[in-house]
Design goal:
The complex is a heterotrimer.
Chain A: H1 2-7, E1 12-17, H2 20-32, E2 38-41, H3 49-53, H4 60-84, E3 86-89, E4 93-96, H5 110-137, H6 145-148, E5 160-165, H7 173-182, E6 187-191
Antiparallel strand pairs in A: 1-5, 1-6, 2-5, 3-4
Helix pairs in contact in A: 4-5
Chain B: H1 26-38, H2 44-70, H3 85-96, H4 98-109, H5 119-140, H6 166-199, H7 203-212, H8 220-253, H9 265-291, H10 300-331, H11 334-345, H12 349-361, H13 369-372, H14 375-402, H15 417-440, H16 446-451, H17 466-473
Chain C: H1 14-37, H2 39-42, H3 44-74, H4 81-91, H5 98-109, H6 128-132, H7 139-170, H8 174-201, H9 214-239, H10 249-281, H11 284-287, H12 298-317, H13 321-324, H14 326-348, H15 354-359, H16 363-369, H17 372-375, H18 381-401, H19 415-420
Helix pairs in contact in C: 1-18, 3-4, 3-5, 3-7, 3-8, 3-9, 3-14, 3-18, 4-7, 4-18, 5-7, 7-8, 8-9, 9-10, 9-14, 10-12, 10-14, 12-14
Classes of the chains: A alpha+beta, B mainly alpha, C mainly alpha.
Chain lengths: ~190, ~475, ~425
């Protein structure tokens, strides 16, 4: 361990805080100092911390809207196609749905198609929500320096960390460390890559 | 201070009652909840119930095998009652499966913070109940090996499912509901799985929890999207939960059978589902909080709130019973009138009156606070409601079919031992899954509970004096 | 937590309230007067139907307000305290709303109600089915029920408005406990009276038709009307310089969500379920109610309802931002209150013309037989004037109710919570 850390560059610094209030105050200062490659790690979503950090609103809802729209269209197509369609694709491929009369209803019955339209809309929206949340968050994540440090394991318990990464253009070993020190953390932890 | 003895059921509009008792720091919350999973050995009672449940679940498997080999003649289903126990059980279990998503989604949208202590295992209960529910229509189709015909899978027979049939809507509704509930449950659990991962003391646990927590590291940038995704899932699950039981009610209500064909069925079924689901949550929560010492999280206030929801939804169900009766009379139709008089005074009157006394009368004790805060009484009422809601489905399915328009085609339905034991066996499957869940997964939403503690407010004072905060709250 | 200081805010109507009260009151009464003058254009029967429609629309808004007020106490809500007084003020119109019901009351009691409610006609006694129902559908029992409904509504709205105002003066937090204590009982009374009122005044317009869902449908209608109305009221009060601090963007957002949830999605759910079940089972006595609503010009009105009451507002309100900007949510609420009136109109007015029904053997023949002339109905000035006048009177009444009290319940112990909460 000692060998590798001396050889490789440091990945970043983690400053430990004990309360949501303290990390919110500190996060505002980090954002104001102009850092870009940095993050807060907390056991639960601290209300307002994302705003203090200057995190932009996510585009997730827009993606989900289109996911849902796809679901509706798929459902309409699926039902119209399977229950009534009779077309010749490119005049050579005959496509025939299963045209079967039940209870005197027309083959394309709007009211009867609504439930499946609704269900598929919700299904695709929900899958899109979770899928794009994982994608945008880069999960599953097999390895991360924050997870490597055993001390930072308390993130999922009761500690709040601000992590500034070394790849930030403003990062310099001494300056960043002393800057973090000025925020009044409990401790500062160097992180290995 | 010891908040253990605080009575948080007192109604003082000047301040909100605490939802977590006995804790003023996050670490102790983590420790106390994780102790359920981390105890080297679970309580003896856990083993006993698991063995019984597993036996019953095996009975279920054997009986399903017997059914497949022999045919549906082993059931009491007959002509005219072609829908017997399997459909009753299906509707019963789907109904139970509504409380979880209701608590997670609807109470979340309504900013009911007390949901955080009960949502996790209510959601788990939902998933297991929907598994039990899905089983029954699956085996009810007779030729089980052709169950895949229910799905729109291209095949050489050029055959597609009939999309104008409400039974097919069920397939879509229930499978969507199962998928979305599972996603909701799992997404909510990721941060807590990460907690268990970081606390694990052996390699198997570390790998298992590590695998399922997907490398969650509590990043605020992740939390930001995570919270938005959770809100969206809640917004999607809310109409979904209404739709599922509505679609189940359509199975009956699109027909022309008196007692089945009535327009109030969709909202009435939804209210009934929430009613039975909450009763089941109580039935499970009361022993769980005693055995695993979760009384600081599932406090008396939570139980009281659930009792209020039971009273409310029980009254809504009562409203629907009343409306059905009134309109049956008001319609002036001979068959409508007969269907309802027959329910109350016909050959299945016993089932009807069990239903009314369990569903409408027994929750009325919850008008009194003494009853709402009495553990034993609420446990008994919750069991009554479970029984009553099963009989509600029995009354709907069986009475209408047994005596419809033509007296010459009337009949009587009796379940066989296979029917009864399959139903009992489904409880075994449900309980087995539930007991395994309690042992191996985070039973309470650890991260969410922390977030509703007064200490989680970033604007709170650094001294961490909750009393002080309260004073400010009503200054 | 944001701290909001209400001392800089204007929390009373002042002379503005008096002006609006007089102006909209005079306009409303004048509108009603002119409508009476135009009675001959519409014809007596059509006029009474329009009157019933307009009355049911304003009644729906007041009932929605009563429901909202009771609900907030039932669930001990904190967020809504700042807007609750306005809701109480709208609900308090239930104390005098019976005045608008007098023409219908007189018509029925004088024995000429048969053109409005067919069961009240003397011929109904010879109809077997109607005769079966006559122990419920008879004029005496009908007016007794009407009196009970109005009495219950007046009592409930008076109780909540009165006690809440007294709390302003006394500052006694225990008043909140009292209001909460009565909330479950009030909710049950509300549910029963609202349901049976919808049976009596709308469903029995077509006395052979029945639907167990109908009470729930009128509930969905009433909350649509109420949430649109309160959003507009807040918007105009803020335009006049009042409630600048007390009512925040978060309140708009939450009311917008409720309008979306109940007025758009829940309404569509109930409307769809009722229609689909009747359409699917296709039992003649039940489909008879949807016939007149899908033939001739009514077909287009039904389509307008689907798109204007569901599709369009759904797309507008599903996103977060339109709910958070005062201007956009006010425009949407304005649209919703118009479409809400169309919805009530659609509930009350359509009938299958007897002449078309007489000759037709099949559905297609019936559709062909329906001509504008045989329809026996055409849109006329009264259909616009009556609801506009009654809405104007509703505004006037609300101003009168709120003339002397604070526009927010200043002593409510949860006011602070309502002022500082944030949607995330």
């Amino acid at each position: 361990m000692s060998q590798s850390s001396s050889r490789e560059k440091i990945w970043g610094y983690a400053a430990e805080f004990t309360t949501p209030a303290a990390i919110t105050q500190a996060a505002k200062k980090v954002a104001a100092a102009g850092y870009r490659w940095w993050d807060c790690h907390t056991p639960f979503p601290v209300h307002g911390l994302d705003i203090a950090m200057g995190v932009k609103p996510t585009i997730l809802p827009i993606i989900v809207f289109f996911g849902g729209l796809t679901g509706t269209l798929v459902a309409i197509f699926l039902q119209v196609f399977t229950n009534s369609l009779e077309v010749n694709l490119w005049a050579i491929v005959p496509v025939i749905g299963y045209q079967f009369e039940v209870s005197g209803k027309p083959l394309i019955s709007g009211p009867a198609f609504v439930p499946v339209m609704f269900e598929l809309t919700v299904l695709l929206s929900a899958l899109t929500t979770v899928g794009s949340m994982f994608l945008l968050n880069g999960l599953p994540c097999l390895y991360h320096p924050v997870l490597k440090s055993t001390k930072l394991a308390r993130i999922t318990d009761d500690r709040f960390y601000i992590v500034i990464e070394a790849r930030d253009p403003k990062f310099t070993d001494e300056a960043t460390r002393s800057f973090l020190d000025s925020l009044g953390p409990e401790s500062i932890e160097p992180l290995e890559p | 201070m010891s908040a253990l003895n605080v009575d948080n059921t007192v109604d003082d509009p000047r301040q909100r009652s605490p939802l977590v008792l006995g804790h003023t720091d996050f670490a102790s919350v983590t420790n106390e909840i994780c102790a359920v999973n981390e105890a080297p050995k679970p309580p003896k009672l856990w083993y006993v119930t698991l063995v019984i449940s597993a036996c019953l679940a095996s009975t279920l498997l054997v009986l399903v095998g017997y059914l497949v080999v022999t045919g549906v003649g082993v059931w009491g289903n007959n002509n005219p009652v072609m829908w017997g126990f399997p459909i009753v059980n299906f509707v019963f279990w789907v109904g139970i499966g509504h409380a979880g998503t209701l608590i997670s989604a609807i109470l979340f949208l309504f900013r009911q913070k007390w949901r955080t202590s009960i949502n996790r295992f209510a959601e788990a209960m939902t998933i297991f109940a929907v598994i039990c529910a899905g089983l029954f229509p699956g085996i009810h189709i007779g030729r089980v090996w052709l169950a895949y015909w229910l799905f729109p899978i291209p095949n050489q027979m050029e055959m597609w499912p009939q999309f104008r049939s409400p039974l097919l809507w069920d397939v879509f509704a229930v499978s969507t509901y199962f998928t979305v509930s599972l996603l909701f449950w799992y997404v909510g659990m990721i941060p807590d799985l990460a907690t268990l991962r970081d606390r694990s003391n052996n390699r198997i646990k570390a790998i298992a929890y590590g695998f399922f927590s997907l490398g969650w590291r509590g990043s605020m940038r992740h939390w930001h999207r995570y919270e938005r995704a959770y809100l969206l899932l809640a917004a999607l699950a809310t109409p979904l939960v209404l739709s599922v039981h509505s679609v189940v009610s359509f199975d009956f209500a699109v027909s022309q059978l008196p007692g089945w064909h009535t327009t109030i069925f969709p909202p009435y079924f939804v209210a009934g589902a929430i009613f039975s689901g909450f009763a089941m949550v109580l039935t499970l929560a009361i022993p769980a909080r005693q055995i695993w010492g979760l009384k600081n999280f599932i406090t008396m206030r939570h139980l009281e709130n659930m009792n209020k929801v039971i009273l409310l939804t029980g009254s809504m169900v009562g409203y629907a019973y009343g409306t059905e009766f009134f309109i049956a009379w008001y319609s002036g139709e001979l068959y409508e009138k007969f269907a309802f008089i027959n329910r109350a005074f016909g050959q299945y009157a016993w089932a009807y009156w069990i239903m009314v006394s369990c569903n409408v009368l027994s929750p009325q004790v919850f008008w009194f606070k003494r009853a709402r805060t009495s553990i034993w009484l609420m446990f008994i009422v919750s069991i009554f409601v479970n029984i009553g809601m099963w009989f509600e489905r029995f009354v709907i399915v069986v009475t209408s079919l047994a005596q419809d328009f033509l007296p010459s085609s009337w009949g009587y339905y009796e379940p066989t031992w296979v029917d009864t034991m399959t139903f009992v066996g489904s409880f075994g499957l449900f309980m087995t899954l539930f007991l395994l869940f309690i042992r191996f997964l985070p039973v309470l939403a650890i991260a969410e509970i922390k977030a509703v503690m007064p200490e989680a407010d970033p604007h709170a004072h650094h001294e961490h004096d909750p009393d002080h905060d309260h004073e400010e709250g009503h200054a | 937590m944001k701290r909001i200081d209400l001392s800089r805010d204007t929390l009373t109507l002042g002379s503005f309230g008096g002006k609006v009260f007089v102006l909209s009151g005079v306009l409303g009464l004048a509108g009603l007067g002119v409508s009476f003058g135009l009675k001959s254009i519409a014809g007596n029967d059509a006029f009474m139907k329009s009157w019933l429609f307009a009355f049911l629309a304003v009644l729906a808004i007041c009932l929605g307000a009563l429901f909202f007020t009771i609900l907030q106490h039932l669930v001990k809500a904190g967020w809504s305290v700042a807007v609750r007084r306005l809701s109480e003020g709208i609900a308090a119109n239930l104390v005098w709303i019976w005045v608008l019901f007098i023409p219908i009351f007189v018509l029925m009691v004088s024995g000429n109600g048969g053109h409005l409610f067919p069961w009240a006609a003397p011929e109904a006694a010879h109809d077997h089915l109607l005769h079966e129902k006559s122990s419920y559908l008879n004029i005496t029992f009908w007016w007794i029920r009407a009196v009970v409904f109005f009495a219950v509504w007046a009592l409930l709205s008076r109780f909540y408005f009165g006690l809440s105002r007294r709390q302003d003066a006394s500052g006694d937090y225990k008043a909140t406990n009292t209001m909460q204590w009565f909330a479950p009982l009030a909710m049950i009374l509300y549910a029963l009276t609202q349901t049976f009122a919808s049976y009596d005044w709308i469903m029995s317009l077509e006395p052979k038709w029945f639907s167990t869902m109908f009470g729930v449908y009128y509930f969905a209608v009433s909350v649509t009307g109420f949430f649109s109305a309160i959003l507009l009221l807040i918007f105009f009060l803020q335009k006049s310089g009042r409630l600048q601090e007390a009512i925040t963007r978060e309140h708009y957002h939450d009311l917008g969500k409720l309008l979306f949830g109940f007025g758009v999605v829940f309404w569509a759910y109930i409307g769809y379920s009722q229609y689909m079940l009747i359409w699917y089972a296709n039992i003649p006595i039940e489909t008879s109610w949807f016939f007149p609503r899908q033939i001739g010009p009514w077909y287009w009105v039904s389509l307008i309802l689907i798109f204007g009451h569901f599709v369009l507002p759904f797309l507008l309100l599903v996103s977060r931002w339109p709910k958070r900007f005062k201007g956009s949510i006010a425009i949407i609420a304005g649209w919703m209150i118009i479409i809400f009136c169309v919805d009530v109109y659609w509930l009350v007015i359509p009938v299958v013309p007897e002449s078309a029904l007489a000759g037709a053997e099949t559905y297609d023949q019936l559709v062909e037989a329906v001509t504008p002339a045989s329809l026996g109905w055409q849109l006329n000035a009264v259909d616009f004037l009556l609801p506009a006048s009654m809405l104007s009177l509703l505004l006037s009444g609300t101003m009168f109710n709120l003339r002397r009290c604070s526009l927010v319940p200043t002593s409510d112990p949860r006011l602070e919570e309502s002022l500082s909460f944030e949607n995330f």
